[in-house]
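Input structure tokens:
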């Protein structure tokens, strides 16, 4: 990827993208209502009534798109868009055969970054924590309005598009922080800061997924690799060092924010 000029696009400037959405929900009424509402908005929709069927669809996409993303088509119809990708999964928590938590955990372990909007009849903090810890991007409690569901879907798809765009960019920026990917250097408030390779990669991970909450275990797995033997305090130590280098007030951070009970979020 040769580029002389850094390419940066702001999240807010991106258009809403149409996409392909998998709706996993065992209650037929809800499933069909969601599917119809999304189709009316122009999205391509697939449905699955249980966890195993959803997993089969996800695997089908993966087998057609080996480079980490999720590609092709339909649980009902045979693949009609063999080159298209799976852009969003709406996932009910309580499902027959494989529940939403296990399914989400599996999808993330396979390395997919497809956005997941989790649905649940329960609204307890514990459920939300578990959902977000296994890698769901957002959480909606039943009963919900279709307008809210569609707004959340739009936001997730836009964020995903932003992430794809930034992956092809050579510069990641957030307010006063600029991360120059090709030159492996970082400036904060126009000053050059020296980061270790691990610190650089942690910052790159955070800046590639603005406002996403990262549990310590996921950071450990992404940066240190799945075979690393050590505990998540390693992450806390590196975050502390990073804060000392990029924050104006490291004890009251603006960028690397602790989300109690979840992990860390950037911005
Ligand atoms: Ca259910």
């Amino acid at each position: 990827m040769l580029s002389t000029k850094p390419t940066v696009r702001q999240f807010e400037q991106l258009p809403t993208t149409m996409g392909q959405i998998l709706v996993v929900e065992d209650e037929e009424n809800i499933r069909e209502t969601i599917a119809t509402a999304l189709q009316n908005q122009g999205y391509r929709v697939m449905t699955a009534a249980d966890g195993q069927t959803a997993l089969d669809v996800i695997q089908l996409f993966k087998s057609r798109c080996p480079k980490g993303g999720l590609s092709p088509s339909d649980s009902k119809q045979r693949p009609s868009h063999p080159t298209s990708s799976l852009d969003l999964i709406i996932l009910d928590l309580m499902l027959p055969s494989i529940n939403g938590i296990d399914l989400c955990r599996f999808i993330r372990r396979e390395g997919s970054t497809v956005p997941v909007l989790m649905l649940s009849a329960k609204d307890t903090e514990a459920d939300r924590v578990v959902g977000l810890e296994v890698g769901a991007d957002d959480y909606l409690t039943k009963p919900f309005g279709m307008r809210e569901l569609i707004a959340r879907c739009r936001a997730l798809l836009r964020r995903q598009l932003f992430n794809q765009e930034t992956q092809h960019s050579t510069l990641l920026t957030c307010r006063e922080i600029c991360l120059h990917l090709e030159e492996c250097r970082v400036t904060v408030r126009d000053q050059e800061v020296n980061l270790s390779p691990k610190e650089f990669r942690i910052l790159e991970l955070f800046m590639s997924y603005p406002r996403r909450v990262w549990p310590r275990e996921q950071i450990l797995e992404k940066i240190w690799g799945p075979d690393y033997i050590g505990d998540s305090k390693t992450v806390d130590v590196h975050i502390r060092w990073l804060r000392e280098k990029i924050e104006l007030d490291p004890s009251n951070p603006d960028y690397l924010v602790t989300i109690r009970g979840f992990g860390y979020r950037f911005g």
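The helical segments are 28-40, 51-64, 100-109, 125-133, 146-167, 197-208, 216-224, 233-246. Residues 171-266 form a domain with the Arc Repressor Mutant, subunit A fold (CATH 1.10.10.10).
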